[in-house]
């Protein structure tokens, strides 16, 4: 289902302090971008400052949300169906705050993402429909910290969908019959990476990122504490990039 509209968590600050302090490459603004993620709020933690900046600069941005987060609560009065409804509304509002054009809800079960041909095909379909220059997603291969299984699967499926599946016409040929041509993605950006190599200056959009995160009311008992932690991450990333606040990514480019 597509709803038209006008994370995973990063490493702890103490882990970021252990990174080498080499300068990271700045990130240019694309014309079109697709964000693939596992749960509501993952993208806000991982890349919302970048998304907000790009949206201001005219980038056409689409979200693809794999699950509706129907298990993510400690409230025993909520059913999975009710929680999914709440979290989809929260995600739609966060996307509006950021300037995301639309959110595609795939509605796989929370905690049940699998690397399947069906899931990959749905991501390939959105890539061929949206035709992004860049795809953003969660790091599928973290080595220094724990990562939710759904986050790893979402990142892996997004990466594979970008290359070679969306490029070659014999993968998911039914898309051609539907009028969706093949597409070459220029790059994938992974948030939550152990060793990022590009940065996005979010000094002017950090407050927008926090406003979007605050839309996920069902997830935070103390949002002020969360906001302070997010600011710490952004400040430490910014130190590597020599800007006040930044988001950092691992970049893979596709040359073929």
Which tags fit this structure?
256 residues; alpha/beta; Rossmann fold; 9-stranded mixed sheet; 8 helices; 9 strands
Principal-axis shape equals globular
CATH class: Alpha Beta
CATH fold-level label: Rossmann fold
By DSSP, the count of extended strands is 9
| Rg for CA atoms | 17 Å
Low-confidence stretches: 1-9
Describe this structure in words.
- With 256 residues, the protein is α/β, with parallel strands linked by helices.
- The protein has one domain (2-253): LmbE-like (Rossmann fold, 3-Layer(aba) Sandwich), CATH 3.40.50.
- The protein is 39% helix and 19% strand.
- The chain has helices at residues 13-16, 42-56, 80-98, 117-130, 149-165, 174-177, 206-214, 223-241; strands spanning 2-4, 25-26, 32-37, 60-67, 102-108, 134-138, 187-191, 198-201, 246-253.
- Strands 1-5-4-3-6-7-9-8-2 form a nine-stranded mixed β-sheet, with helices on both faces.
- α3 (80-98) links the parallel β4 and β5.
- The two termini are 32 Å apart.
Describe the SSE topology:
Blueprint (H helix, E strand, L loop, with lengths): L1 E3 L8 H4 L8 E2 L5 E6 L4 H15 L3 E8 L12 H19 L3 E7 L8 H14 L3 E5 L10 H17 L8 H4 L9 E5 L6 E4 L4 H9 L8 H19 L4 E8 L3
Parallel strand pairs: 2-8, 3-4, 3-6, 4-5, 6-7
Antiparallel strand pairs: 1-5, 7-9, 8-9
Helix pairs in contact: 2-7, 3-7, 4-5, 7-8
Short description:
The protein has 256 residues and is an alpha/beta fold. It has eight helices and nine strands. The chain has one domain: Rossmann fold, CATH 3.40.50.10320.
């Amino acid at each position: 289902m597509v709803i038209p509209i006008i994370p995973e968590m990063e490493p702890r600050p103490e882990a970021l302090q252990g990174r080498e302090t080499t300068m990271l490459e700045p990130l240019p603004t694309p014309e079109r971008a697709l964000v693939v993620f596992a749960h509501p709020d993952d993208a806000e933690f991982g890349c919302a400052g970048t998304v907000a900046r790009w949206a201001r600069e005219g980038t056409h941005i689409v979200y693809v949300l794999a699950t509706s987060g129907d298990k993510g609560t400690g409230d025993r009065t909520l059913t999975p169906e009710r929680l999914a409804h709440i979290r989809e509304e929260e995600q739609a509002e966060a996307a509006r705050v950021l300037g995301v054009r639309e959110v595609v809800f795939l509605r796989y079960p929370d905690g049940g993402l699998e690397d399947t041909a069906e899931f990959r095909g749905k991501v390939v379909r959105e890539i061929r429909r949206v035709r992004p220059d860049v795809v953003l997603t969660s790091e599928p291969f973290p080595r220094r910290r724990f990562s939710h299984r759904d986050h790893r699967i979402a990142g892996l499926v997004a990466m594979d969908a970008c290359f070679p599946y969306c490029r070659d016409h014999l993968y998911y040929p039914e898309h051609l019959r539907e009028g969706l041509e093949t597409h070459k993605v220029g790059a994938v950006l992974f948030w939550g990476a152990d060793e990022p190599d590009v940065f996005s200056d979010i000094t002017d959009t950090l407050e927008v990122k926090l406003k979007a995160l605050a839309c996920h009311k069902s997830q935070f008992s103390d949002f002020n504490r969360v906001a302070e932690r997010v600011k710490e991450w952004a400040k430490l990333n910014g130190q590597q990039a020599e800007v006040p606040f930044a988001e950092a990514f691992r970049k893979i480019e596709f040359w073929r």
